[in-house]
Amino acid sequence: MSGESLRERKKRATRNAIHAVALRLIGERGAAGVTVEEICEEVGVAPRTFFNYYPTKLDAAFDMPQTELAPERAQAFLDADGDLLTDALALVASSTELPGDFLRIKELLHDHPDLAFNFWKQLIGRLKPVHALMRQRTGDPATTRLTFGLMVLAALSSMVRPGDHADPDGSLDRLLAEVAAMQELLGGIDLPGPPPSEGRSRDEA
Predict the structure, then answer these.
(1) Alpha-carbon distance 171 to 166, whole Å?
(2) H or E segment at 127?
(3) Tens digits of per-residue pLDDT, 35-70?
(4) pTM, rounded to two decimals
(5) How far is CA 102 from CA 19, 21, 34, 65, 83, in A?
């Protein structure tokens, strides 16, 4: 990447190496069959260095990107008046850069479904900024919880779905397809909207 110092390039290379080895070894043996020490030995770093980059071996394998919300995108989301779930999915898709080995991570989750819960926990952590914006936009904790839960389920379902080798750039289309499938399964149930504002009369409601 242009503008990076030599130190930054070395740090990025070390992080990428740890991630690649963790992903490969856990894919081959499962999480229980791999230790942090084995990952470090193959990469050629000390465990202390490993923990400077990742808290656990599964964090290293997934290497989930942080959701970076640009101020203008966050404000646009708050000002929007469309469907909350669709707008939230669009915000996530435009604010999260998928890793280059996205398809290999999908394969890991498909081959080792026992890792889905850990992936789910990591996903929730990465999406907390989006949850905060949803809560701010709706002013309704119940609607926020339900919509955020559906968004996380859509992301998880997309990752573990077999045979889906779509272009990583089409993440929004995949997420919307998962939501549509869930709505069909639930009989077309709509999400509850936010409660009417206190200033509205019964006739206006």
Answers:
(1) 8
(2) none
(3) 999 999 999 999 999 999 999 999 999 998 777 889
(4) 0.71
(5) 12, 15, 21, 11, 28
